[in-house]
Amino acid sequence: MTAQSRRRVRQDKLQVMAAHRRILRALGNGPARRNLFGPVDREQLQTEYRDALRKDLEDASRRWSFDFVSEKPLEGGDFQWEGVSGVRVPVLYRSCQDGEHPMQRAKEPSSDTQKEEIPRTPERFGSVPQDIEKTPEKRSELKRKQTNITDFYQAKKRLVATPRKSGQ
Amino acid sequence: MELLCLEMDTIIRARPDPNLLYDDRVLQSLLTIEERFLPQCSYFKCVQKDIQPFMRRMVATWMLEVCEEQKCEEEVFPLAMNYLDRFLAVVPTRKCNLQLLGAVCMFLASKLKETRPLTAEKLCIYTDNSIRPQELLEWELVVLGKLKWNLAAVTPNDFIEHIMRKLPLPEDKLDLIRKHVQTFIALCATDFNFAMYPPSMIATGSVAAAICGLQLNSTNRSLWGDNLTELLAKITNTEVDVLKACQEQIERVLMNNLREGRRQQQKQQQQEQGGPRSKALDDQDQSSTPTDVRDINL
Fold first, then answer.
1. Residues in chain B within 8 Å Cβ distance of A8
2. Counting C-beta atoms within 10 Å of the first and last residue's C-beta, which end of chain A has fewer, N or C?
3. Buried b vs exposed e over B196-218: b needs ≥16 C-beta within 10 Å?
4. What are the angstrom distances between the C-alpha of A155 and each of A84, A148, A158, B73, B271?
5. How many structural domains does chain A have?
6. Could you tell me which of B118, B198, B58, B254 has the C-alpha nearest to residue A30?
């Protein structure tokens, strides 16, 4: 690359930066840190959040014909749920209530301290050992709190006229 | 023996993968699936009551500024705008929650695209603490649900390399063109008129606008006006007329933005100097105007 072409490339770069800044300046007005539309109504936000989650849950219940709150199958949907015994599901999905890992259970926080709908933050997983992938027993610790439907029921799709894609 | 540690606190990024970029099947797949990630309707007409197009522009502008200031990857902003539009197309939203939504969308897009994503705390500071990290995390879940967890949306940025490698472009100008294209794409994302366009069309129109703007078409015959449009239209299966219209629309938006920017700049300068326009200001103005034209080369 000659000195001249190098200079030209640099000039181009400067031009681009200038162009980019200019366009952005045209869009911007003042510091990026700003409140755009006034104060947020916290209580209403909280209500809307709960409503939205509840509605999602209701939609999911309808979609899968399963009441996720009481963990019972619903009648008359696209799915027929059948119970299976816990020993038939992979160890990953088994709950620890059979006393398999009493020591791990002792570490478990009491269930009423955590509201179910609060999203999990990384901190919650902070205490999980690094080698969780080594044995299924340790993995089950990760999953222990989340009992899965398939622990108790096996999904069987009933034939319907129009096939639906998962999640629709 | 001397030991040298070259490890620096920089972001490690993968090199462009030729297996992905030089395979036409990837481009064809992108073209096939891109429509799936478009907002379902023009939501200002059919869904939203409280918010107006200019408010979308306000929140988009703010999001772009945050992404710029935080030096996010280029595709974070267009992707976040895709989430925002898809959410607004299904959920009636109040004005006072629009910034929260914008922050959530940046939060998600950044997590998907960056090795060091924006934190919830940082985003809350950018809203001038009008929202709390806890609220951001809660609404993240709501937005995810409404997007059906389909986060890996196709953006115009996904097409840039696929289009550019098929054009006879001068090697030494590639970075420059790329940067211009990215700027145009970001500009389109701030403007609701482009929200329902397929990403490939925005990308193709932006490439066309960048090449014409930089006057690269003066050197190579195949990059002349109609030749270029036809070539580009073929690459992304766009209709020539539609592509031309799109390019012109991008150029118009750009012009308007530059004009608006100049007006704001002048207003600012006038305020700073606290009086009528001085001679110095006029000089400055004259010197800055031609630079604009050369910068953008419209």
1. 172
2. C
3. ebbbbbbbbbbbbbbbbbbebbe
4. 10, 12, 9, 42, 69
5. 1
6. B58
Whether the Cβ atoms of residue A27 and residue A33 lie closer than 8 Å to each other? no
Instruction: Say which residue, A12 or B78, is predicted with more confidence.
Output: B78
Say if B51 falls within a structural domain: yes
User: For residue A102, what pLDDT is reported?
Assistant: 43
Residue A138 lies in a domain: yes
Q: Tell me, what DSSP letter sits at residue A81?
A: E
* CATH label of the domain that carries residue B67: 1.10.472.10
Task: Answer for the pair B142, A53: CB distance below 8 angstroms, yes or no.
Answer: yes
Please answer whether residues B121 and B107 qualify as being in contact, where contact means their C-beta atoms are separated by less than 8 angstroms.
no
Together in a domain, B57 and B173:
no
Residue B140 inside a domain? The answer is yes
The span from the CA of B261 to the CA of A82, in Å, is: 65
Angle between helices B279-296 and A3-27 (to 10 degrees): 110
Q: Cβ B295–A56 below 8 Å, yes or no?
A: no
- pLDDT digit string, tens, across residues B52-64: 999 999 999 999 9
Closest CA to B110 of B142, B145, B141, B70: B70
CA distances from B221 to B33, B146, B226 (A): 33, 48, 10
Do residues B84 and B59 lie in contact, with contact meaning Cβ atoms separated by under 8 Å?
A: yes
The ipTM (two decimal places) reads 0.77
Q: Chain A: give the shortest CA distance to residue B221, in Å.
A: 22
Query: How far, in Å, CA of A50 to CA of A117, rounded?
Result: 9
Total domain count for chain B?
Answer: 2
Mean pLDDT for the stretch of residues A34-52: 93
Residues 5-44 of A with CB under 8 A from B: 5, 8-9, 12-13, 15-16, 18-20, 22-29, 32-42
Cβ atoms of B213 and B246 within 8 Å: the answer is no
Q: Which residue of B has its CA nearest to A37?
A: B96
Are B160 and B289 contained in the same domain? yes
